[in-house]
Please model this.
Amino acid sequence: MNEVAPPSPAGLRTRYCGTVGIADVGTEVCVCGWVARRREHGEHLAFLDVRDHTGVVQCVVDGASTLRSEYVVKVTGTVRRRPEGTVNDQLVTGEVEIGDCLVETLNESEPPPFVLGAPGQVDEAVRLRYRYVDLRTERMQRNLRLRAVVNAAIRRSMERQGFLELETPLLWTPTPEGAREFAVPSRHQRGAFYVLPQSPQIAKQLAMVGGVDRYYQIARCMRDEDLRADRQFEFTQLDLEASFVGEADVRAFVSDAVAEATESATGERPAAFPEMTWSEAIDRYGSDKPDLRFAMELVDVTPVLRATQFKAFMAPAVKAIVLEGGADLGRARLDALVERARGLGAKGLVWMRVVAGEVQGALDLESPVAKFLTPEERAGIVATALARLGDLVLVVADEHRTACEVLGQLRLDLGRPPVDAGPRRFVWIVDFPLFDGTDDEGRPQAAHHPFTMPHPDDLELFADEPLAVRAQSYDLVLNGWELGSGSIRIHRADIQRRVFAALGIADEEAQARFGFLLGAFRYGAPPHGGFAFGIDRLVALLAGEENIREVIAFPKTQSGSDLMTGAPGKLSQRQLVELGIRIVEP
Ligand code: ASP
Model:
């Protein structure tokens, strides 16, 4: 991490704990912090490890027996070399100690609810309940600093690129980005509600109409969605938007910010991010957020099986992945894979072990279905999949998208490296479809959000083949995590109406919900486009953390509770009356 050295402390202390070193030997210093550890040596000597946000320093104290863990202390003493044999290489300050210490207790502490510095051994619920104690740990201090370093880098990049930081309202109105929204009752207008923004999407587009040209904000977004490891109700995005730009311009803005952030965090600036079309990502990785750290690509064996007599393989697409050396997987594991594939929506999964063929040097497949395939078909599968002796080939025959996505998930199940392993592989996914499937009534669903500009070459397909219309939208993906997405926006009311119509949003509804936006488009909206990416996710990946909660100071649990404050809580009867709200028990 590119950390700025801490400034000289002012106030009660002359030095930070983690910065005391050999150069200070012989000088008197004063440090403040928490008692991390205390060891008695005989009756009248104690070693105190004092901790602040920069690290730990050992202090040697006469008769400090009243001090306990997490007491807040001010220690004054003289820095000296540690006696030979007691140097601690694990500690930045391990060559020295502060001797002849005078200790002032600034505050006492109850015994802490858990042992700090025992990562992994403390129940997360306890950590979250006492988050203010948990934040003192080295891991959390490091993660919070990393986050600040990333934010600062993002701001630097945005400012350098001429973006203007603008704050948009938190009390807002519903926007159609797919997530359920949090509502805030209005006291002045009973029965009316604000909505917490899912993102500043419409506000930033209005800022473009307002001539802001380039906008950015490190924005808090709120979505009432089920929580997962990479989701929280409230999360932070770098949100940006620019006028008179095309897709490539927006991607360049974002790439710079992400590269700057990554460099600040790791010391290495990543190489230019490659691009891959959405169709290629689905085809090769079965996912629109491919993890490129490992291969195990999907192969298409449809051509080999074009004339097959085996019913299960007479499908629009037959795709396969190869698990290297997987032929020795036992029956139970194989059955579990078949179950997993079914659970993911495939009709079935066929496994085939690559074995030695009858002819010397040739390979064949051993599988419960092998007898239904001709020797040519089996040889064709082995050759197309580039499978080798001892490998396992997994085959799904289905609709193209299903076959790809099921194998894409199995690829991750079987091959994905741990979150902190391997190189950082950024990739831009471009040319998303405008609509992603249809709803129960056969209406197309917006893949990104309904303000996304269709691809200019595909406008003709709108009426007859809406699902084939490409969008001018793009995602940034890092190691299989979607960092964010964006698009060129519709800036013309006529095209916006067409898209609303395709989505089944009638004119009146569009007027009622987004009248202010359509209205703004009547007053000279410039062409514009933008992006937003999740800072929590980026920081988690840079910190090598599995869970974004580890990089958020005060996160909520999986069920949306704040274990520290008890939120969400009840309102008093007086507040409810004021808001005109009556609670209906479930
Ligand atoms: N508002 C979008 C989102 O939060 C991103 C964008 O299109 O700028 O996903």
